[in-house]
Each structure stands twice: as C-alpha cells, then as structure tokens.
Amino acid sequence: MADGQKLKKTAMIQLPRSHCRIFRPPNRRYPLSAMTTKLNVTIGQHSEQGLKSENQDFHGAIIPKPPQLDTKGIAIAIADGVSSSIDGREASQTAVGSFLSDYYSTPDSWTAKTSAHKILTAINSWLYSKAQHTEHATRGLLTTFSALVLKSTTGHIFHVGDSRIYRIQRHNMELLTTDHRRWVSNEKNFLNRAVGIDIHLDIDYRKLTLEPGDLYILTTDGVHDFTSDNDIQRIVEENHDLQTAAEKLVQFALEGGSNDNITAQVVRIDTLPVQDTNTAIKELTQLPFPPPLEPGMVLDGYRILKEIHASKRTQVYKAEDTESGQTVIIKTPSVNYDDEPAYIEGFVREEWAGKRINNSRVLKVIEQKRKRNFLYYVMEYVDGQTLRDWMNQHSRPDIKEVRLLVEQITTGLRAFHRLEMLHQDLKPENIMLDANGTVKIIDFGSTKIAGIAEISSPIERVELLGTKNYTAPEYLLGQPGSNRSDIFSLGTITYELLTGKLPYGDALDRTEGRRAVANLKYQPSYHHNPMIPVWMDGALKKAVHPEAKQRYDTLSEFLHDLSHPNPRFMGDASVPLLERNPVAVWRGISIALAIGNGVLLYFLLR
Asked: Are residues 484 and 531 in the same domain?
C-alpha cells in the first residue's frame, strides 16, 4: 500500500471475499521518506465472520502520499453493523468506505475535527434517510463507528457506538473510547448511540499527543466482549509483527466463545514528523529572495512595470507576463527578513492560502506554470482603488450603497470562513474596488489557517496583528481569534463607511489589558449620521462588541440585521425619537406642516 490513493480506489471498487468485506492492506511499514521527518506507521488488521452467517464488520486504513500525509494525515477506521437493522453490512461498509474516501477530499485548510464531523454527519443523514424510505424504517441502517486520524504529532479520535480504541503507551494500556450501551438488565443491553439511528449524530471527539512506539488497537465487540484488556495487551506486545497480532486477537476471541463478527486493527507509531530547526529552515530557503526590482526588469518571465506598494515586510509590483501579455501583480518578500524562518514560513503560507480560495470577491493567486527561481507569488491585477481611497471620495455615501459594499465584502470573507481561515487584518486598505465597484479582499499576510495550525513545526509561528483600530480586542489581549473576530473588523468598516468615524474613536489604538477593553465605550452611529435608524445602529453595536461572545456568530446574521429591523434593537426608550428614526420624525413634521398650511389656507379663502 505504498500509494494511498490506489488503496482507496481498490478498497472501494474491488471488495475482498464476500465473508470478509474489509479494506485489507498488507502488513508492512510504509517508508514515506528516507528522513525521519515524516509520520511513519505499521498497521496490521484482520477480520472473521465467526459464527455469523455474514461479516457485518468493516474496516480500513489509508496512508496518503505527501503533501496529503502532512496536511490530512493517516486515517484508520472500524465499524460494526448492527445485525438487527435492515442491513448492518451496508451501513458499516458505507460508514468506513465513505469516511476514508471523503476525508481526503475535504479542504486542506480544515482541521481534522471539522473534516470528520462534516463527513460523519453527511453519512449519518444518508443512512437515516435511506432507511426512512423502506418498509422497515424502524429498524434503520445502523452501525457503530470508530476512527483514528494521525496528523503530524497529534491523534484525533471520532467515536459512536461500542466498537473501541485502546492505546498502549510505555506498556500502559488505556481505553480511549466509551461504549454507548444502555443496560436494561444484567444480561440485556442495547446501543443508545449509533450512526444512522437518528437524524442528529452525537460524535465523541478526543485529541491526544502521539509518541513514537505508541500502539493503538481498534476492535469490534466480537473481540473485546470475549477478551480481557490484559489479554489484548499481552497479545499485542508479544507479537512485534502487527499482522500476526491482529490475527491472534481474532483467534483468541473465537476460542474464548465469541459468537459475533470479529475484527481487530493494530497500529504502531514508528516515527513522528519532528524536524530540527536547521532542516526546517533549509526546506524554506530553497528559493532565494529576489533582488530589488525596477521597471523594465524581467523576473522569471514577468516584466516589471512599476512598484505599487512597499513596506518593511513586502514589495508589490505591477508586471506583465511576457508570454501571455496578461497584467499581473507580483508580491515579493523584504530582504530585511531573509534570515527569519518565521517570516519566510508566513510568506509561503500566504500563497498557500490564496491558492485555495476561489471566490470572485477575493483576489486570486495565479498558479505559475514556469519554474520559479526566486521566492515570490503572482496575483490577478485589479484596476481600481482601495476602499480607503473610495471612502475619502465619498464622505457620506447612501445607506443602500454601503449595504451593497458590505454584502460584497461579506461574500469574500465567507469564503475564508468556509475554509476555516481567518483573515485577521480586514481594513479599508485591504479591500479593493475595481472600476465597476466590484469588491476584492486582498492581503493574506495575517491569515490564520486552522488545518495548518495543527501541523507541528520547530519554527515559532508569529501571529501578525492587524491595524489596532480594526482588530478585535481579544487579539490585543493575546487570546485566539474566531469568525467573530473578523466580524468585528467588518462591523468597524461598516460603521466607518456610514459615519466617517470609528465606533470607539481611537481608543482601541491605546487599549492594553482587560480593564481597558472593558472600559471601551461605544459611540452610537446616529450621533455622527442622523439618517441611521436605531435598529441599524443596534446591528453595528452588536457586531463590534468588545466581548466576542456578545457579537454575531455568523456573517449572515449581521448582514440580515443591517437590512431588516430587529425588534431587539427597537426598544431603547432612552433614545429620543428623532435619533431612533429621524426619517419618520421629519416625515411627520412635514405632513403636519402641510396639514396646517392647508387648514390656514382654507380659512383665508373663506
């Protein structure tokens, strides 16, 4: 099984013999690199139908090639179809087969937890829905499910039902899962949680640190109900060949009176992807920094037209592809940081993130087909201006116009969030508008990628803070960010578009410490722009609340409340009516004056 993708295809299409429907990779070590900087494991697995008429257990494992070995890891799964259901074998085969196949199809930017939960939820919905369309709906398509994902130096466990995962670490064995059984008597019990049992799936999740030499054992109840934990540990530790260990576990359970299907998987952690700093730096610095670029110079087929922006950290150039004639943007790292691994890793990560976001409201990173001789990346060229420039030209835009801009920014920002990325530096300077008013979010230098954050690195990753007045207070306190942090930035931009001011003035720029955050005082937007109704101000206030848990949880909620009066924001009696709804007040005054003038005219003409 040197090729993980080949295993996946073979296991899904060419099932082994009918009485043993399992993924059956050979027991061998999978040396993915001559260096010990990769995750290497040994796997043994075996299954028998036992005294049952068919084998309703299913299991499998996939070890992908790099780069998926790094970004997604190794996945091992086991399932035990419930015999009293419509077809336990179909349920277990679907659960394991679909999980192993689909896990590697999820975005690399997702965490292992997010990927697994989304896949298992979809599998559960499919099994449950299929059962509802049969005459035996009450019996369902049910299966237990346990999976172990080994990513970098961390193990991730996902579990439903009464299959089990054990760990032997330094000769100490521990049961890592909980049996979801309910006992009704000393002899009778039933599963109270299983895949396919209900439209909603409750999945146990556990994260643990891996160590070289760790042994993980996955079993169905045909093994552990008839074999003591001591015997499981003894058999595994006595047999260095893990295929032999798996087969002996199955045989021991059969000899112990097992009357069920019997499946065991044994996994050993041989090496972990632990690099020393020198190796990591060497990998990052394979490409040198480009020299200072001037108009007319050609870099790997790109003719430099002019410098657009330069800072301490990067340079941005307008260039032309000499082959296609396409106008592009080239971003290069600053030579000030050519000896700082954390900076170089961050610059490489910028391009990685940009390549994975495909949204019309986010600046596209262009895939390069020519060989690169220097460290830089290429983006699409937008002929336009920054939102800051636009705001300077439109000091008091119409509210509807602001909503349209915010809707476009939201569309782009949602593309980040769907990939479990946080932009973390959303501000008017990082938003472009082309000649048609189309928004493009730019600059991925501060973007946090959840899936990459799970991968261990000897290089200290420095989180770059955005501009303070647009940065969520939790960042200033050294706390991790979330989607709500980006919503704070978006709320601040929306407030500034409507008022020309910031919701806390320049207080955030001077804020340090929890007490200072707690003392932040929001300035109602209608104080600066009386045309803003109180319900819209309520939406802005919620979006930029100093406490993250008090903000909107999703972008769609914020966007909805910007356009639709939320009753929760209408009841502040302390706000004068003129401030709550100035349009209605002035309309009422106009109507009253018109009526008064009409009455006066009537009496004058009598």
From this structure: yes
**Coil, helix or strand for 590?**
helix
Task: Give the predicted TM-score (pTM) of the model.
Answer: 0.82
Q: Does one domain contain both 118 and 18?
A: yes
- DSSP β-bridge partners for residue 58: 79
Residue 271: its H or E element: strand 262-271
**How many domains does the chain fold into?**
3
Q: Measure the CA–CA gap between 544 and 308, rounded to whole angstroms.
A: 32
Give the CA distances from residue 546 to residues 29, 31, 81, 473, 482, in Å, rounded to whole numbers and listed in that order.
Answer: 52, 50, 49, 6, 14
Domain contains 606: no
**What is the distance between the alpha carbons of residues 64 and 66, in angstroms, rounded to a whole number?**
7
Q: What is the pLDDT of residues 441-488, one digit of tens each?
A: 999 989 999 998 898 776 665 565 667 889 999 988 888 899 999 999
Residues 207 and 296 in one domain: no
**Statement to judge: residues 238 and 291 lie in one domain:** no
Q: What is the DSSP letter of 143?
A: B
Same domain, 363 and 463: no
Find the domain containing 371 and state its range: 278-380
- The DSSP H or E segment spanning 415 is helix 399-418
Question: Would 589 be classed as within a structural domain?
Answer: no
Structure tokens at 313: 């950290």
Token pair for 53: 């008429």
Packed helices 277-284 and 341-356: angle between N→C axes, nearest 10 degrees: 50
What's the token pair of residue 136?
């035996």
pLDDT tens for each residue of 255-284: 999 999 999 999 999 999 875 556 555 666
